[in-house]
Design a protein that fits this description.
- It is elongated and about 115 Å long.
- The chain starts with a helix and ends in a 9-residue tail after the last helix.
- It is of the alpha+beta class.
- The strands form three sheets. Strands 6-3-8-9 form a four-stranded antiparallel beta sheet, with no helix packed on it.
Length: 201
């Protein structure tokens, strides 16, 4: 009887432990910080801060300011800015922040062989207590050194159709010229047939 009671107690303890660990994993955030190629502009590199865990990361702070807006493909242009070390009040599960980091030459000059980064944050465990944790990273863009220097074909086409400050792009100018040529042919044909130029809305 005592053995059965003892085994039952162990079984209950293990069941509670497994349930707690399951809830703990569901409440635990996991912060990632990294540089990634921009999907629309081939030479641009973005800085990403995201929470891929299952819980809210509260009072997210960085050990150093994070370089952004450092441009220059082969050589730095001398400009640049920083995402402040004060971080974010909270990053929810699945939330993702993207910042324009710059280009390879500018970021490589700023980061060198790698920037050591500690990310600290708080979260609530399954019983509601506030806990503190941190992630350790080395930020680098060395693996992005072979990015193409020009815009992607998709972005080039999109930009070609845009109007900048009211000024027509090349494609708009070609369209207008083709319309003028078409109107000229119509006038010539109409004159040849003895009619006046057609008027269309």
């Amino acid at each position: 009887m005592e053995m059965a009671t003892w085994l039952a107690g162990i079984g209950t303890f293990l069941a509670v432990g497994v349930a707690y660990m399951t809830l703990y994993k569901q409440s635990k955030p996991h912060i990632l910080v990294f540089y990634v190629p921009n999907q629309k502009q081939a030479s641009i590199i973005d800085l990403v801060v995201t929470n891929i865990g299952s819980g809210n990361a509260i009072d997210v702070r960085f050990s150093v300011d994070l370089p952004i807006h450092f441009f220059g493909i082969d050589h730095p242009t001398g400009d640049g800015n920083y995402l402040q070390a004060s971080g974010f009040p909270m990053i929810a599960p699945g939330q993702r922040y993207e910042f324009q980091g710059g280009q390879f030459g500018g970021l490589q000059e700023e980061l060198g062989d790698g920037l050591r980064l500690l990310v600290s944050y708080k979260y609530k465990n399954p019983i509601g207590c506030l806990c503190t944790d941190q992630e350790d990273f080395v930020l680098s863009v060395s693996h992005l050194g072979h990015l193409p220097a020009s815009k992607s074909a998709e972005q080039t086409i999109v930009d070609a159709f845009k109007l900048s400050n009211g000024t027509a792009t090349t494609l708009h100018e070609i369209r207008d010229e083709l319309r003028k040529i078409n109107n000229s042919f119509e006038r010539i044909l109409n004159l040849g047939e003895g009619r006046g130029p057609s008027h269309r809305n």
